[in-house]
């Protein structure tokens, strides 16, 4: 008889457990039913084992099976993919503040000192103040104009370099990489510092190699990003590699910053004049001393911004130049149109200046069409909603990794006529309203909304200036019997799978203009 109460307690506990589990199952099932449809994965790992290297192709194919919005799990991470202009509008316009946070990889956080940069920092007052400072003080029209001589110097140096390779195979991507890196390094460190590095032929090359390694690490899938509980173990060693690379980058940044700090100190003491052209480090260090700029700057935040500029400003620009040249070599009649426009706007006895760029409408259309077919970031940078939201009638829980599949939108036959054909002419109509700012949801090469690429004005100038100079100064052709390779490689930025080599021949009657 004494066991009766314990039996009753056991039965009561069992009943309560069943009721609780039933309610929990019902709740989870109900929440699951509100999520978008999508492919089933395996227990624990989800869809991870089925991912292919050409992820943007795979996600576009899945949209044809599951519709414009679908979900899948990567380990413990819920992912949602949006594949239409109307869904993009819901995220980057209608609910932009909810989806304003990035979902950064661990390697990205390491590279930016825990997200102290502009690209990965959480949406809020810090991000707003940092972006405002970056755009106003560093990428203003006034500052970009002040840095024009640096860009012109590097582009003309590249043209002179190509002239030494007349009739020989030339690596277009390497040309673009060296030019862009030298421009960015000059704008960050100052032309004197870069010339000093080139003289020793060490740090410039070393810095470029570090950038390449950084981009490779950022594009490498990291198991710790999908299973946060395993992050402490760093199973693939990606975090360790990123930390080592950051120290190597600091070994170049720190001496430059210290040299600039000494210059500022000497200026205060009246030993040097203060009317020289300012580079980015100098601008940031001067802002660090001010108390009324809206954000408290320190050396770590300054280095985070500088890493942002280098990482964000190189690979996408270089890749775009290579893809434009690839498409023009594959469509020689389009290249002829570009060069005819250059002859009319610039003249065969003149060299390209940035002042010519606004008149190069067909080259601008070629660039836009290239970015439609080959967006540098086909899935952009993943977003993470700060709260649960409704998109396309489905629930997107807080913390979900949201991909905006720009690649699918740009090639959607319901949105674009003959979407797989290279037709720059589609961008010449004034009625299209297709610009780089993402104002039209069917064309989003750099995203849209408040987290659109902050370096867009500089990137647009550099790509156009580089392309116009290469195409005005030289005719380009492939080696005899070779065909253009349009296949894509794998990485954070979608490069060509094979590097582009082409043969330049002189086009201008007087090359001395570039001396």
Automatic annotation (TrEMBL):
Its cofactor is heme. The keyword Metal-binding applies. PROSITE patterns: CYTOCHROME_P450 (PS00086). Gene3D superfamilies: Cytochrome P450. Heme binds at residue 453. Keywords: Heme, Iron, Membrane, Metal-binding, Monooxygenase, Oxidoreductase, Transmembrane, Transmembrane helix. The keyword Ribosomal protein does not apply. Pfam families: p450. The chain crosses the membrane at residues 9-26. GO terms for molecular function: metal ion binding; monooxygenase activity. Belongs to the cytochrome P450 family. This is Cytochrome P450. It comes from Solanum stoloniferum. The lineage of its organism: Eukaryota, Viridiplantae, Streptophyta, Embryophyta, Tracheophyta.
